[in-house]
Amino acid sequence: MERTATERYARPLPCPVDLPGAWPLAGTALGFREVAVLTRGAPPEYLPAEAAMAVYPEIAGAIGLAAGPRADLPGLAFGRPTVMGVVNVTPDSFSDGGLFDTPVSAVEHALALADAGASVLDIGGESTRPGAEPVPPEAEAARVLPVIEGLLAAGCTVPVSIDTRNAATAEAARLAGAQIFNDVSALTHDPASGAVAARYAADGGAVCLMHARGDPRSMQRQAQYEDVLLDVYDALEDRLSAAMAAGVPRAQVLLDPGIGFAKDLEQNLALIRGLSLFHGLGAPILLGVSRKRFIGTIGGAERPADRMPGSIAAGLGGLAQGAHLLRVHDVVETVQAIRIWQALGEAPSIPLSPDPDEAARKTPL
Fold first, then answer.
1. More confident residue, 137 or 129
2. pLDDT at site 113
3. CA-to-CA dists, residue 340 to 29, 307, 316, angstroms
4. H helices then E strands: how many in the chain?
5. What is the pLDDT of residue 95?
6. Is 70 exceeded by the pLDDT of residue 353?
7. Confidence class of residue 218 from pLDDT cuts 50, 70 and 90?
8. How many Å is the maximal CA-CA distance in the chain?
């Protein structure tokens, strides 16, 4: 999509949804009354939402999409914070490579994440850490398919997502029972991915489009942006349009700004701070910050396994901007943190997972 240097963007400024005059924010427990009107090279202009639409009619569509609800997907209700549990079936992932690289250990781990409150399980067979070498699709499929099949055989009731750039792996996973195609390349790596994504949508599933540049070997050399927030927004808007043209309805697309993928520390922070901008695209937002390098840099945690507290802090920052889905390694700790965050914010009292002690508490979370 062609854009001009004076193009305007509308970032809703989250507030409690019960404030007088607040519009709902993307179907979450948040609202907004004002927007920051953004233009490249100029300071933000803060206006009430109605005034912004009157003064700048070209942003009215984005504001309307930001205020609209997000359609539920199989097993996923986006009116409450949702957690995606990471299951890496790899020997070399940056955080947990080699810990769950057999079907038995991966299935056991995934079932434990579901029991802990994960609403979806993301199964990956290729590391996308900076510098990682590509894995042939047939080798990737050999890693992930037994896990997907094992989960279904074990009676797993939460939806399964396949984390892959390869159309053949995604298609094999779909036939094995996966319901979400989570593509870190946003359907650009493999020419056949658009057709596979359409089949996921036809089955009632979903496609997640993540922003990245290059591949894991080259992406960190491509972290140059004029304005990272607006550049990533433009790129995701283009990829959303491509997915819709391929046959995936907007209601069945999730969008991920790609924290840590061709972004440096300050760019990652800018994206999290400005995350509410992406509600103008009209799709649920997935945020993956778990154990990322920038958390270790800021928090002084060299080992990824030591970055859980910072991961939770960054995730809650995303929820405060209206993120719908957090992709995490530490499900138990994240679910607990979200419950407290909800209680303190007086958000809707919807439990993330069944709790046998729920009835005994006077104040359910």
1. 137
2. 97
3. 15, 20, 11
4. 11, 12
5. 56
6. no
7. confident
8. 59
The Cα–Cα gap between 43 and 251 comes to 33
Calpha distance 173→166 (Å, rounded): 11
| Tokens standing for residue 115 | 């029991």
**Catalytic amino acids?**
292, 327
Residues 282 and 65 sit within 8 Å (Cβ to Cβ): yes
Residue matched to tokens 């053949």: 168
Question: Is residue 208 a contact partner of residue 159, using CB atoms and an 8 Å limit?
Answer: no
Residue pLDDT, tens place only, 115-131: 999 999 999 999 876 76
Strand partners, 76: 73
Cβ-Cβ contacts under 8 Å for 349 (sequence gap 6 or more): 342, 363, 364, 365
- Residue 262 near residue 212, CB atoms below 8 Å: yes
The amino acid at residue 5 is A
Please give the model's pTM, rounded to 2 decimal places: 0.91
**Structure tokens given for 300:** 């002084």
Is there a contact between 250 and 283 (Cβ–Cβ < 8 Å)?
yes
pLDDT in tens, 20-63: 999 999 999 999 999 999 999 999 999 999 999 999 999 999 99
Q: Which of 75, 73, 78 is nearest to 252 (CA)?
A: 73
**Nearest residue to 107 (alpha-carbon basis) of 128, 87, 82, 84:** 87
